[in-house]
Design a protein that fits this description.
The protein contains 8 helices and 8 strands; from the N terminus they run E-H-E-H-H-H-E-H-E-H-E-E-E-H-E-H. The chain is of the alpha/beta class and about 220 residues long.
Length: about 220
């Protein structure tokens, strides 16, 4: 794969983070999560980090100009020279337009956008079925990868817990919000002929293999 910016889109439960990690390892390029770099900027006390901290402490959303500035600083670092993955960004058309301008200014060309598409019923099963070991953090799914004994971790006998926000009502709200927010973004990149759709309804391994083969030829 030539040096390039990759953007991963996918609803909660689509496996976006999993596939981004596999691609990151295969091509030795950083996976950049906006949540992680926002926290890092706050921790380091950079000018943008301090501005973000002030907003968060006031219970306000961090505005686009701050988030975009932090992303711009991160993708300017040397480890991004051979390409990078944006995970969870952009989320809106103005953010996508910012990415376009930033990449053009850095001479990096257009991004390649991977859209991991999964049927909503399957997403519901993936998310409502998640159970996490209270001791070691091992994750199970009662529908697709259940423990040998219900409610008990195979590794250490720890109690398996369901996250408070993994209930059906909350998940439906998250999926609707994602659909409203991201549908315009998908169309934005599709019109630019930059979008590559991936069927995320399969097991992670064949998806990763297919994706890596596609990227090697991209």
């Amino acid at each position: 794969m030539k040096p390039r910016a990759l953007i991963f889109l996918g609803a909660p439960g689509a496996g976006k983070g999993t596939q981004a990690r596999e691609v990151s390892k295969e091509f030795s390029i950083p996976q950049i999560s906006t949540g992680d770099i926002l926290r890092e900027a706050v921790k380091k006390g950079t000018a943008l980090g301090l501005a973000a901290k002030a907003k968060m402490e006031a219970g306000q959303l961090v505005p686009d100009e701050i988030v975009c500035g932090i992303v711009d600083e991160r993708i300017s670092e040397p480890d991004c020279a051979a390409g990078f993955i944006l995970d969870g960004f952009p989320r809106t058309i103005p953010q996508a337009q910012f990415v376009d301008r930033a990449l053009e200014a850095k001479g990096k060309g257009s991004p390649l956008v991977i859209n991991i598409a999964v049927d909503q019923d399957l997403l519901m099963k993936r998310l409502t079925g998640r159970r996490t070991c209270s001791v070691c953090g091992e994750i199970y799914n009662i529908h697709f990868g259940p423990p040998k004994q219900e409610g008990v971790c195979d590794k250490d006998g720890g109690k398996l817990l369901q996250r408070a926000d993994d209930n059906e009502s909350t998940i439906r709200q998250r999926l609707v919000a994602y659909e409203i927010q991201t549908s315009p973004l998908i169309e934005y990149y599709r019109k630019k002929n930059l979008l590559h759709d991936v069927n995320g309804s399969r097991d992670p391994e064949p998806i990763a293999k297919e994706l890596i083969q596609f990227l090697k030829g991209a």
